[in-house]
Design goal:
The chain is an alpha/beta fold. It is 47% helix and 21% strand. Strand 1 and strand 2 form a beta hairpin. The longest helix has 17 residues.
């Protein structure tokens, strides 16, 4: 069972995105659809918390979907984005982010540090 997905927390005006395990194109598209539904609910100044600690490096098709997601989030202009990452997932997302995202990302080793950054 993969617990990846995206939800919107209206109280914090925050998208919580978790990506774990190996992704195929179908799972990537499902999470993309959830993320876009969450993005549609945000208000100006929203934040995004992306937990990719358990994400396994993905192939080109999945990376293309992730890149598209980054571009779509960028259009809504998040005020802050925090990524909680392991070494490999951090490298892959860092490279994709430089190519596709139009926003700065803080990368942190723990959820607590990421939450603190977003709440400042």
């Amino acid at each position: 069972m993969n617990d990846s997905g995206a939800t919107y927390d209206a109280k914090k005006n925050r998208i919580n995105l978790k990506m774990a395990g190996f992704f195929n194109a179908a799972l990537a598209q499902t999470v993309y659809d959830q993320l876009m539904a969450a993005v549609d609910k945000t208000k100006p100044g929203f934040t995004l918390l992306n937990d990719i600690r358990e994400f396994k490096p993905a192939g080109d098709e999945v990376q293309a979907i992730i890149g598209k997601a980054m571009q779509q989030v960028s259009l809504k202009k998040p005020s802050k984005v925090a990524r909680v990452a392991g070494a490999l997932s951090g490298l892959q997302f860092g490279r994709l982010g430089k190519e596709k995202a139009g926003y700065e990302v803080g990368t942190f080793p723990t959820m607590e540090e990421a939450e603190k950054f977003l709440n400042e």
